[in-house]
Amino acid sequence: MNEKDIVNDYLTMIKGSLTGYASVISETDNTQLRQTFQKMRDQDEQRQLKIYQAAKQKGYYKPSNPANSNEISAVRSEFMQSL
User: Fold this and answer.
1) Where would you tag: which of 9, 29, 45, 72 has the fewest CB atoms within 10 A of its CB?
2) Burial status of residue 68 (CB atoms within 10 A of its CB: 0-12, 13-18, 19 or more)
3) Closest Cα to residue 21, out of 1, 54, 53, 43?
4) At a CB cut-off of 8 Å and minimum separation 6, what does 28 contact?
């Protein structure tokens, strides 16, 4: 397994844990437990950002092109209509 594969696997694992945190946080009634999971989620988000930036710098990941203002307006309009 090469470094690129390891980085991609790690990013996938973090993405999974972030999804899990969202479920647990939204279903937790205990304030202290909720805050603990939020702190863990925040730490994973920071780790994910660092690994993502390293992967992008090494060319392991190429983000999509930014949306132009017309595309952003169209999506915003669709979203607002669905509310």
Assistant:
1) 29
2) exposed
3) 43
4) 34, 37
Structure-token match 């607002």, residue found: 80
Q: How far apart are CA 63 and CA 1, in angstroms?
A: 23
Helix (H) or strand (E) holding 74: helix 69-82
Q: Both tokens of residue 61?
A: 């990941």
Instruction: Parse the chain into domains and list their residue ranges.
Output: 3-82
- Residue found by looking up tokens 């992967």 in the block: 55
34-79 pLDDT, tens digit per residue, is: 999 999 999 999 999 999 999 999 999 888 899 999 999 999 999 8
- Which amino acid is residue 48, in one-letter code? Q
With beta carbons less than 8 A apart as the criterion, state whether 41 and 15 touch.
no
Tokens linked to 49: 């950002």
Residue 6's identity, in one-letter code, is I
